From TrEMBL, chain A:
GO biological process: putrescine transport
The protein's name in its UniProt record: Spermidine/putrescine import ATP-binding protein PotA
Annotated catalysed reactions: ATP + H2O + polyamine-[polyamine-binding protein]Side 1 = ADP + phosphate + polyamineSide 2 + [polyamine-binding protein]Side 1
Domain annotation ABC transporter: ranges: 6-236
Described function: Part of the ABC transporter complex PotABCD involved in spermidine/putrescine import. Responsible for energy coupling to the transport system.
Subunit structure of this chain's protein: The complex is composed of two ATP-binding proteins (PotA), two transmembrane proteins (PotB and PotC) and a solute-binding protein (PotD).
EC number: 7.6.2.11
Molecular function GO terms recorded: ABC-type polyamine transporter activity; ATP binding; ATP hydrolysis activity
Keyword annotations from UniProtKB, A to Z: ATP-binding, Cell membrane, Membrane, Nucleotide-binding, Translocase, Transport
TrEMBL record, chain B:
Pfam families assigned to the protein according to its UniProt record, in alphabetical order: BPD_transp_1
Coiled coil segments of this chain: none
Signal peptide: none
Record's protein name: Spermidine/putrescine ABC transporter permease
PROSITE patterns: ABC_TM1
Length: 361, 292
């Protein structure tokens, strides 16, 4: 593995009495697409701004490419930022915007011209250089902001919720374009987002943040399959929670009695935070199966009553109240050929497996 | 129903009714006097009798006599200096209030800036006489500190005094439009400039100043137009060499009994001010492009 491009160690950030970041430690690898994901107010933007140099850290250190960033102002850091509002200079044309940083570096005019044209081409805006920046649409302004940052060939590109202002279709298009662009230029991207789907589809690794702390830092698959606690599990995708009582915890496994499902023996790696009285069982909707056919069988079975049916065409989502549980669980089923869709009030047999149950604190 | 009764209920009629007080006011107090001055400028006066035959004599005199040329040029020059000084004084204050004063204290600061208006204009001019006079505050302090041996005489009763007094009077008017323009600047633009490699000074020159220009131009127009026509300040602190065109206009209307020449001078001054203002308006349009 290559050396980390960014090393964050022990970062605290205070605004007066309010603490926005608590002892944040992370290493971001060279060339990866990294996301900071979390609900609004979790400190993800603050963390990005401390990397960019817009915020001083109250304690701890930011290191970029092996260099300490203590006392290095934003204009001398090897990072560039795409702002949430894009921050396109209204009094300049598209080309002047893109050339802004090169002029600050006093690059000769001819070279600037060539570099600007290349950058605009890269983001799909070839020939737009002479346009007034205020005449550009939201998506185009975003591309200008990208070109303006990328033309400087930063070591790290910081993106502060760049897609949140776009409509759904445009956003999906930009997601794939950003991913392609990142692979093409090979620059480390750090994306701040509150949209878990966006983070999962785009990133190599994700740091999930809650209230100024990193809850978990892992690959999208690992975050989804092996969330370390209840908070992360709830934030990424849908997770059903059921009460559980652990009867025996010896020899690397836990013997459990899960409300509504039944008895199971869970290996210790499915209990990342250990086990105590506060632990609950978590199961993803796609890990439960509705056994709608007389002949279909599962290793383990439970039963309940269908409370609600949400039909999406390719998928059906059921809210099923398991016997002995007072809240329904969500179960998703793919509507493959011949599979019956149950209706409200139907009795359902629910298949499950011990390998898909997590014990979370 | 008659046509008039119908019209009276129309939207057009209620529109006219709503603007009528203002309309009557501006016709009586603005349009009518202006029309009179225009008419007057083409007539001649012999002591108290007006000769109403059309003549361009007054304009020819206003534009060819050296004394009027001098006064007109001096008025333009003093106004230009006052405007420049006002903007230079106002910009840092507006910048400070916009960028460094916490959001919730800004209204208080703006309120404090208007305090000079609580004193009458005349009173403020007299105060400047006290400050700048031969035995005034400035000379007294400098003498007391031993910086000078004789009181300075170049600070009162000349053009410098007019510039200083007028600039002080107009600074608040200049602060407000500049403050508004600075407030409108999206702060992320400044961060973007810094992110792209600019230090504080270059960022100011390349982003802050161009985006504040609409406010600066507005302040320039607001200060320049009225100061060129000011006659109280030059009269009280200007001395013989600090008199401006408006003092001459007053003289023509009153002591010289030559209202037509006064009218021609007034309209000539108005023409010059209009030309200068149009230049500024044109500049402003250039800067306003792209902002909202």
């Amino acid at each position: 593995m290559t050396d980390p491009i960014i090393r964050l160690s022990g970062i605290d950030k205070f605004y007066g009495d309010f603490q926005a970041l608590y002892n944040v430690n992370a290493e971001i690898r060279t060339g990866e697409f990294f996301s900071l994901l979390g609900p609004s107010g979790c400190g993800k933007t603050t963390l990005l701004r401390t990397i960019a140099g817009f915020e001083d850290v109250s304690a701890g250190h930011v290191e970029i490419a092996g260099q300490s960033m203590d006392n290095v102002p934003a204009n001398r850091r090897p990072t560039n930022m795409v702002f949430q509002s894009y921050a396109i200079f209204p009094h300049m044309s598209v080309a002047e915007n893109v050339a802004y940083g090169l002029k600050a570096r006093k690059m000769p005019k001819e070279q600037i011209k060539t570099a600007v044209e290349a950058a605009l081409k890269q983001v799909g805006l070839a020939g737009y250089g002479d346009r007034a920046s205020h005449a550009m649409s939201g998506g185009q302004r975003q591309r200008v902001a990208l070109a303006r940052a990328l033309v400087l060939k930063p070591k790290v590109l910081l993106l502060d919720e760049p897609l949140s202002a776009l409509d759904k279709k445009m956003r999906e298009q930009m997601q794939s374009e950003l991913r392609h662009l990142q692979r093409a230029v090979g620059i480390t991207f750090i994306l701040v987002t509150h949209d878990q789907e966006e983070a999962l589809t785009m990133s190599d690794r994700i740091a999930v943040m809650f209230e100024g702390r990193i809850g978990q830092l892992a690959s999208p698959q690992e975050l989804y399959r092996r969330p370390v606690n209840r908070e992360v599990a709830e934030f990424i995708g849908v997770m059903n929670f059921l009460n559980v009582s652990v009867t025996n915890g010896a020899g690397g496994t836990f013997d459990c009695e899960i409300a509504g499902l039944g008895k199971a023996t869970i290996p210790a790696e499915q209990a990342p935070g250990g086990v105590d009285a506060s632990v609950t069982a978590g199961v993803r909707p796609e890990m439960l199966t509705i056994l709608s056919d007389e002949n279909s069988r599962s290793e383990r079975e439970a039963s309940g009553i269908v409370q609600d049916v949400y039909y999406y065409g390719d998928m059906t989502y059921y809210d099923v109240q398991l016997d002995g549980v007072d809240h329904p669980v969500t179960i998703s089923m793919r509507n493959t050929a011949g599979r019956t869709v149950l209706s409200r009030k139907d009795r359902a047999r629910v298949g499950w497996g011990a390998e898909s149950v997590l014990l979370l604190k | 129903m008659s046509g008039f009764a119908k019209w009276r209920r129309s939207e057009e009629a209620s529109g006219w009714l709503l603007v009528s007080p203002t309309l009557v006011y501006s016709i009586l107090l603005l349009a009518a006097p202006l029309a009179m001055v225009i008419a007057l400028s083409f007539w001649t006066q012999d002591y108290l009798d007006l000769d109403k035959t059309f003549t361009l004599k007054n304009y020819i005199e206003a534009w060819s006599e050296p004394i009027y040329q001098t006064l007109m040029a001096r008025s333009l020059k003093i106004s230009a200096f006052v405007t420049a000084l006002t903007i230079l004084l106002a910009f840092p204050v507006a910048y400070y209030v916009s960028f460094y004063v916490p959001q919730k204290r800004k209204p208080l600061w703006i309120f404090l800036i208007t305090i000079p208006f609580w004193t009458s204009y005349l009173m403020r001019i007299f105060l400047w006489k006290v400050i700048l006079g031969y035995n005034g505050v400035v000379n007294g302090s400098l003498l007391g500190l031993g910086v000078i041996e004789q009181p300075l005489s170049f600070i009162l009763y000349n053009q410098n005094a007019v510039v200083v007094t007028l600039a002080h009077a107009w600074v608040p008017f200049a602060i407000l439009p500049i403050f508004v323009a600075l407030e409108k600047i999206d702060r992320s633009l400044l961060e973007a400039a810094e992110d792209l490699g600019d230090g504080p000074l270059r960022r100011f020159i390349r982003v802050t100043l161009p985006l504040a220009m609409p406010g600066v131009v507005a302040a320039t127009v607001i200060v320049f137009i009225p100061t060129i026509g000011d006659y109280v300040t030059p009269r009280l602190v200007g001395g013989p060499n600090g008199l401006m065109i408006s003092n001459m206009i007053e003289l023509q209307f009153k002591k010289a009994n030559n209202a037509p020449l006064g009218a021609a001078l007034a309209l000539s001054a108005m023409f010059l001010v209009s030309v200068v203002s149009l230049v500024f308006v044109w500049m402003n349009r250039k800067y306003l492009v792209g902002q909202k």
